[in-house]
């Protein structure tokens, strides 16, 4: 009591005894099963079908999964279609499930590099580099040209010889075309006058040994360069004696220029055996490439004759380099001279969750720059502090390019150690190796990552992360922005819903990621084929983070109705019922095995005797999105039923039986039950689904019984009302724990519970025309507690209520009225 020292008004705080009890949630559902993607073993809330699709993906094709395993996505759709609004999903995967992954690459510092000696066309699985030195199997290489570039994986760095020609072939030759080396024999005649490109005739000094249709080798005179094969169309000689002139008519115009005195040589087959083409030799590709059955049949400098498809021509082998075999066909055509260089992985990109869905993730890197400025002072060699006009956008870890990035232009790459923006001063991690004058361009090197989920060649979801860095000191460090992948575990925090990043061990690269090359992740698997009953049942653990399957539902306290749609194994269903008993306030909806007959459904029902479960029959028929037009899919009804439960709870209350309710998003029932069949199902508490469309009443849930032999809890609504009241009182009286166990507490508890039950009664859930007929609340010494109870810290409350039971059978009594009866 306060001490009153002077007259006045004093206000005392008195603890309130009015502590109303809030009703527990009754319409929050939980499902366990396979999904396309999403977190594994973690109850995750979705509040609509769109919310489910964002978190767990689309439907699964039943044809690609064991029976019942593809049910959950369809069940989730049925739940929301029938009025459900809060669903926790626990995803199950196989023990060998993996997440799709790929890597982002940068040019390997000091790594091998070369150019292509011969062009390589789309679809080819090899390239012909100038050198294979330094390349090894499984190396990632960048094949680049002026108009196309792509990543490729080296299968064999040394994959046999290819014969690169000095020029292009005039015609195309098929596989097995003959190839014969030639011997050149000098002729007496030489060019009598200079010949220019495009010439159709050649003046010669002597036509001896030259015949119509013959192939000749035309070569520049000693000390000159140039050689060309020509075909003689005819020989013309004009005049006599010393005045006579000779002209060769050519089959096709001359390609090069040749001066007077250039020599002519006749060609004849060598003594070496002929070989054949292993692959088609294409016309017009410069230089041409021959792949021969006998790689040693022609050496560099050899002259060969190709014969096939009625055509023949002469070609000169320029070189015989060793080809490089690739793991996959090329996607683009690359000209000779295109660069070929090794790459190093810089970041691993992992799909956030395991499953095949991750193979549809496409990554595209594009260059970006947070800062562009100029040197305000000259930066000398070995100097590690530079002055810039504007330091905005520069941070520790920023990679800077000083100079012009144009091909062949001089530039230097440096990394920022620290920044003084006010002074425009930048300290570099390593000193400069080049001299850079005032005004030199300075640009930071960041990158933008576009992540797309591609379905049917169309991006259905995309994320874009701009101005990322590869350096952990940078505020836009990529794994920090997107989310990290640590030893196979995706971080909860991160900006991406689709991927997580892991840096490759080693120092952050100062180079730039290979850009503008869309690349898909690969290697993802949900390992659905190996999922067993134990995976659905889940792993129990003291640590909530280690629980999986049904056991993971323990992590979410608000659940009231649960199912494992489509999974009818007794081990799994009994585990679900046991879970409901353990959690006290939960109710399970069970399915009968797929394809069950009446006898099969009756036999399955006999496996259960629980006051916390209900079973329904038959299966539903819904549209099959993976089948042909009009094809249907038989679907376990538990997901739709959870939606009906939630709809009834929300619109009428938990005291209303979830029966005589219309089933939505259903085309038909697998078995059309009549009253006769229901007369068999009802006595054993197996709930029927009935088709009343012939009576214009749709397809309805026509049973509301618990799978129990206990007559007190025969009806679903009565059992769930009791669970609702018990959970609400349990939760609503937590404030009473550790309060003094005496009359003030007893009065407060009585008031709280009475107020709650009065609300339940007024909602129509309890019988009676007045509250005293609907319920009672007893508490007190020698009423519900002995002194021993009080000494042992127990507060005992006794609550009774009279539930309103469903009018399952409407009895209409009809009798005839007589005159005598009214006399």
Overview of this protein structure:
The chain is an alpha+beta fold and 823 residues long. The chain has four domains: 1-20 and 737-823, no CATH class; 29-96 and 530-716, Rossmann fold, CATH 3.40.50.11780; 164-319, no CATH class; 370-444, Thrombin, subunit H, CATH 2.40.10. It is 14% helix and 28% strand. It is built from twelve helices and 45 strands. The strands form eight sheets. Strands 9, 10, 11, 12, 13, 14, 15, 16, 17, 18 and 19 form an eleven-stranded antiparallel β-sheet that branches. Strands 2-3-1-35-36-37-42-43-40 form a nine-stranded mixed β-sheet, sandwiched between helices. Helix 2 runs parallel beside helix 7 (638-651). The chain is elongated, with a radius of gyration of 42 Å. The chain starts with 28 loop residues before the first strand and ends in a 22-residue tail after the last strand.
Low-confidence stretches: none
The span between the termini is: 80 Å
- Helix residue percentage: 10-25%
How is the biggest beta sheet arranged? 11 strands, antiparallel
Radius of gyration: 42 Å
Structural class: alpha+beta
Gross geometry: elongated
Average predicted confidence as pLDDT: 91
Count of DSSP E strands? 45
- Helical element count? 12
Strand content range:
25-35%
CATH topology of the largest domain: Rossmann fold
Number of domains: 4
**From the coordinates shown, what is the CATH architecture of the largest domain?**
3-Layer(aba) Sandwich
Main CATH class of the largest domain: Alpha Beta
InterPro entries: Phage_sheath_subtilisin, Tail_sheath_C, Tail_sheath_structural
Domain Tail sheath protein subtilisin-like: 548-704
Protein name: Phage tail sheath protein FI
Family: Belongs to the myoviridae tail sheath protein family.
